[in-house]
UniProtKB/TrEMBL annotation, chain A:
GO molecular function: ABC-type transporter activity
Transmembrane segments: 20-40, 60-83, 110-135, 150-172, 179-198, 251-272
Pfam families: ABC2_membrane_2
UniProt GO cellular component terms: plasma membrane
Claim: Membrane is one of the keywords in the record: yes
Name under which the protein is recorded: ABC-type transport system involved in multi-copper enzyme maturation, permease component
Record flagged with keyword Transmembrane: yes
Keywords, comma-separated and alphabetical: Membrane, Transmembrane, Transmembrane helix
Organism placement in taxonomy: Bacteria, Pseudomonadati, Bacteroidota, Flavobacteriia, Flavobacteriales
UniProtKB/TrEMBL annotation, chain B:
Leader sequence segment: none
GO terms of molecular function: ATP binding; ATP hydrolysis activity
Organism lineage string: Bacteria, Pseudomonadati, Bacteroidota, Flavobacteriia, Flavobacteriales
Sequence similarity: Belongs to the ABC transporter superfamily.
Name of the molecule in the record: ABC-2 type transport system ATP-binding protein
UniProt entry keywords in alphabetical sequence: ATP-binding, Nucleotide-binding, Transport
Length: 277, 300
């Protein structure tokens, strides 16, 4: 396993474009911390974003994983090109001739995907922990370590998304087209949802069906945190009518994403196995 | 003899096209093999199948004793097919390091192999700055990193200039002289003739011949003779049962042998007959002549 990861590391780290993208991705992840510095101080209007409660435990886990996931496109480019470059340079052929099996080839790519997701998760965990410790109003241990399922969701979301990129890279063989296809696919999901809800089933059913689509299921894992923030604030301000918000990570959402991940990795392998190079 | 590769009734279809048809052959340790055939005769496809990059339709093949999986066996093989494929943004040393990792061999031999192919002084240049000849030589260095049991080369001199062709041939000869088994696919007959002891001849995916180069045709060779009195000579040769057809071209008489005959004996007999030769050569058909004869015979 270490050997396969090392092989992939050599390929990625010596590629300047990949290296720059990977570094900028992690710099951007860290830059979430900069949000804390957003501060307006114009006479009577004083606004300090960090004081708005976004870094309160356990809400910070939700907020930061959601924001951090927006940067995943950087790594998506790296992953799509690391796959399609093997085709355009024909190095995949040479790798196999040199004695790498097709299974090992896919495994080395998938392990890289897992590593990216894992490192990102650890990164987000550390950054959030520090931000929380500095700005959170609550610092009791049980509160700090509640809602950690958002980190698990973040990890699975990235793994699923990158596996999809991996599959597209193998399927399309050209990085630019594969990324185009990724965007096209996200539009297709919305169109199918629209047609279903408009013509065939009720909007509620269509929404449930949409939850099974690959990209939608990944985005469902971590719901947008902004309405929750407002809710938290309004509850603090006025005790009265409560908005019931479903912001939790559900086990069935996790299962759907895990299934898609398995499907994409298997399809990549099946495709490689079937093709003559 | 230790067997390195056994190919059994291999068939590959690309849609309706049959690229390789029921092909069987055996590669034994220590020999230098040539796979000969015109373009599109299935050479590269056959190599692609045994090298795990093309899926077979029917038949099978076994590396070494047949107990290792193909990809494990390939770690003991060195192969280059068609164009050299490396990561363009990596240097020679970085590329070779990667190959060592894949083949699971220590990277201690990189310098030695780069020296062998004459690229040591360019070892830290990026692959995309190399000329085609240098790329091809790097590919050979890479194939030799694991001191392979067999070296497989597919058209190694394709697209190179005469100097490049010469360099590659010298390297191949050097490797062959060290006792490494080599399988060389080519459509260049003189290339194969110069280095190979055995040939496998393919045409349209079918095997026409496999065996030793000199056993390709059941021929005893031929004499090239020249004398002042050509008429006397041809009369004698035509009467002699040891000779087949006689050809005269610009005074040069070519007599094809039907049975073994020594040049000294012929010279003696002819002198006794009053024919004094100014030119006497006993030759075997070149591989090219044999190849053409063979493919022509099969066509009829």
């Amino acid at each position: 396993m270490v050997r396969l990861l090392h092989i992939e590391f050599i390929k990625l780290w010596n590629n300047r474009a990949s290296k720059i993208l990977i570094i900028s991705y992690f710099v951007l992840l860290t830059s979430i911390a900069l949000v804390a510095a957003i501060k307006f101080d114009i006479g009577p209007i004083q606004f300090h974003l960090a004081d708005q409660g976004i870094f309160n435990f356990p809400y910070v886990w939700h907020f930061n994983t959601y924001i951090a996931a927006l940067f995943k496109l950087f790594l998506a480019i790296v992953i799509v090109s690391m796959m399609s470059n093997e085709y355009s340079n024909k190095t995949i052929k040479q790798n196999l001739i040199d004695g790498l099996s097709k299974k090992e080839f896919i495994l080395s790519k998938f392990l890289t995907v897992i590593s990216f997701a894992l490192i990102s998760t650890i990164f987000v965990f550390v950054v959030s922990l520090i931000l929380g410790l500095v700005y959170s109003d609550f610092n009791e241990l049980p509160i700090i370590f509640s809602d950690l399922e958002f980190l698990l969701a973040f990890f699975l979301k990235l793994t699923g998304f990158f596996s999809f990129c991996l599959f597209l890279g193998i399927l399309v063989k050209r990085s630019a087209f594969a990324l185009g296809f990724l965007i096209l696919w996200s539009i297709i999901e919305q169109i199918v949802f629209g047609i279903l809800g408009w013509k065939f089933v009720s909007w509620e059913t269509a929404k449930i069906i949409k939850g099974f689509f690959p990209l939608q299921s990944m985005s469902n894992l971590i719901k947008e945190p902004f309405s929750r923030l407002k809710a938290v604030q309004s509850i603090a301000n006025e005790i009265g009518e409560q908005v019931i918000l479903d912001y939790q990570v559900h086990w069935y959402e996790i299962t759907i994403v895990l299934c898609w991940t398995a499907i994409f990795v298997y399809l990549s392998y099946a495709l490689l196995k079937k093709r003559d190079l | 003899m230790e067997k390195i590769l056994i190919v059994n009734h291999l068939t590959k279809n690309f849609g309706h096209l049959t690229a390789v048809k029921d092909l069987s052959f055996t590669i034994e340790k220590g020999n230098v093999y040539g796979i000969l055939g015109p373009n599109g005769s299935g050479k590269s496809t056959t190599l692609g199948i045994v090298l795990n990059v093309v899926n077979r339709t029917k038949g099978d093949f076994a590396w070494f004793d047949g107990n290792t999986s193909t990809h494990e066996a390939l770690k003991k093989v060195g192969a280059i097919i068609e164009r050299p494929n490396f990561y363009p943004y990596m240097t020679a040393v970085q590329n070779l390091n990667l190959v060592c990792k894949i083949k699971e061999v220590p990277n201690t031999k990189i310098e030695e192999k780069l020296e062998l192919v004459g690229l040591l002084d360019r070892k830290n240049s990026k692959f995309n700055t190399y000329s085609l000849g240098m790329k091809q030589r790097l590919a050979i260095a890479s194939a030799l990193l694991n001191d392979p049991e067999i070296l497989i080369l597919d058209e190694p001199t394709n697209g190179l200039d005469p100097q490049g062709i010469h360099q590659i041939r010298e390297i191949i000869k050097k490797i062959a002289s060290e006792g490494t088994t080599i399988l060389l696919a080519s459509h260049l007959l003189d290339e194969v003739e110069k280095v190979c002891s055995h040939v496998i001849i393919l045409r349209k995916g079918e095997k026409l011949y496999s065996g030793r180069v000199d056993g390709m045709l059941a021929s005893h060779g031929f004499f090239e003779l020249r004398t002042e009195n050509t008429k006397l000579l041809t009369d004698y040769l035509e009467k002699n049962a040891s000779f087949g057809p006689i050809k005269v071209e610009n005074g040069l008489v070519t007599a094809i042998l039907k049975e073994e005959m020594d040049a000294t004996a012929l010279n003696k007999t002819l002198f006794a007959q009053g024919v004094v030769l100014s030119h006497l050569v006993k030759r075997k058909e070149s591989l090219e002549e044999q190849f053409l004869t063979l493919t022509k015979n099969q066509a009829n």
